[in-house]
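Lab notebook, bench 4. We co-purified these components, and the gel suggests they stay together. Before we commit to crystallization screens, I want a quick structural picture of the whole thing.
Request: model the full complex, all chains together.
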Amino acid sequence: MITSSFPIAGGDFLTAGFASRALKEQLKRIGVDGQIMRRIMIAAYEAEMNVVIHARKGNLWVKFDHDRFNMEVIDRGPGIADLALALKPGYSTASTEARQLGFGAGMGLPNIKNASDVFEVDSRVGKGTRVRSTIYLKTQPVGDPTGHCLSIGPELCNGCLDCLKACPTRAVRVWDEKPHIISALCIECTACIAACKRDVFKIRDQVRKQVPQRSVAEALQDTLVIPRAFLTQFGLKIPPRLVIAVLRKLGYKDIRFSEEWEEELRWAVRRYAAEQDSYPVISPICPAVVNLIESQFPALIGQIAPFMTPIESAIEACGLQSATFVAACPSQHTLLTRADLSGRLQITGPAELSAQILPLIAGQAGSAVSEQKPIPHPPRTVNPDLVVLEAWGMENVIDILEKTEKGLSEDFRILELSACENGCYGTPLFKENPFMAKNRWAASRLGRRRQVSAAPTKNPYVARAGMRLDQDMGKAIEKLTRIDKLTAALPGRDCGACGAPTCSSLAEDIVMNRRPGLGCAVLQGREES
Amino acid sequence: MKLEELIKVLNARMLQPGQKETTEITHIFAGDKMSDLLAQAGPGTLLVTSLANTQLTCVAELMDCPALCLVDGVDPDPRLLEAAAKASTAVLVCPFDMFETCGRLHRRFYGESHRRP
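Here is the predicted assembly.
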């Protein structure tokens, strides 16, 4: 990884361009592809000139490693009063002097945005502006799915079989009165966690490291990305604003909500869907639903809009900065661990972070917190004919996807399907009722804080081999015939006594030889009597 | 088209030679907004503009653009020529205004037809 910093002097049109030129020299030595170089230069020069035109001074930071270029331009200047307007092509507040030199076309921010794979700008009036841009140097190779990240505490289990019945993909078995997960079938939704009354299922390595002691400089850089629902978990006496204030005290300078990227994705998918001919477009809003489609509905993969899931966009937006993420579910946790190759991300869970802040919250209830005005949403114009179907709960999601496969949902233009009730508000990792949590958030009137972007997929969504019985299709067909025969011979009560959720799951386990000594308790009983 | 051929078409003076006069020009872009010039410039592009400040050479250099053509017979800032020499970007000055310059270039490239082929 290479890091460089170039100072930029505001108002100096003679030496302006120095930072971009120095950056180009660096990139040439690395051997960056020509087209990528063009995009980097457009982004860097426009950002540099923005500082020269508008601010007193600024800095261009550059970090790059093997697969991406990250740029951050921070300035001390007047700030941008209306971000949405500033992003509109043609809008400019440049001085006459700058305009005489050919600047001030109002294309600066739009050009940077177009050149970037991930773009973000935020600004405070009277303080300054920060522009971040990420450009991929090359695409990453497709990684193997890492399997599920759930750990099971067998000592807590009393063998109630609730998880067996709850799992929508029939990935759970109860063998020797202890639950097991067949990772090839698990899609990392939260059904088993929600069903279990004894907290047997936990996210493995939820706290990988204790949040280390950070120096002030590091803490200033540190970003915390949390689901909004986290702020509404502390009852009616502790409003979200207070939770934010406490998190700030912990040293998190920059607190972001994963829903910022979720909302941006909603709009990005609407814009994308307006240009498509075949419907419905599936929004990759929930990683568990994406997992489900990849492993069980491969025919629908082409209908997923080519954007990353919100949590992945959030990871991209953090660039190479260190950041702490609160994973709301196993599927988010897996995406985070997979993205964190360099160890720059801290991944934690809602319960762990709560435990950290609870001592600080005690005694704070009811104290006044300063108001901060949220940034209003930019006006969005989207074809009103786009009918969006929003649904949640794995049973509903699977039912809708089955109907979509048969072409029975073409009256909907967009499917926004999520595993948990009310999206991430409903994950069982949160204890508050999802509807109360969501409405408490809405009542807090905390709004959007940044302009973020929905990142396009780096790797297309691809089918996963979860359901496949054998690599060889001939053998797979043979196995399927045996499973069907065996299923027909079983009683069909789906009682779960054998440890498999259904009779056909048991037949599959026997044929696939998932465990020795499997058999049907009911049939055995009949033989004995 | 070779740069030297364009010089003849435009009656232009070469104020600052670039790498070589036989530089191949594959794309011409005319405009007065830095952002547009930046977005359109590339290897093989001739930028035609009525701007004449040092930032112009900076854009050309960053985008690997081989040549600039200034219009209206302007006398550019000596610092522009200095910067162009350093970056080995060719600088031409053409006596015509922007409209006439573009008209001549367009005729030369596309003949008398009104549309781009």
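The domain at 3-110 of chain B is CATH 3.40.1390.20 (Udp-n-acetylmuramoylalanyl-d-glutamate--2,6- Diaminopimelate Ligase; Chain: A, domain 1). Worth comparing against the SEC data before the next meeting. Chain B has a mean pLDDT of 88.
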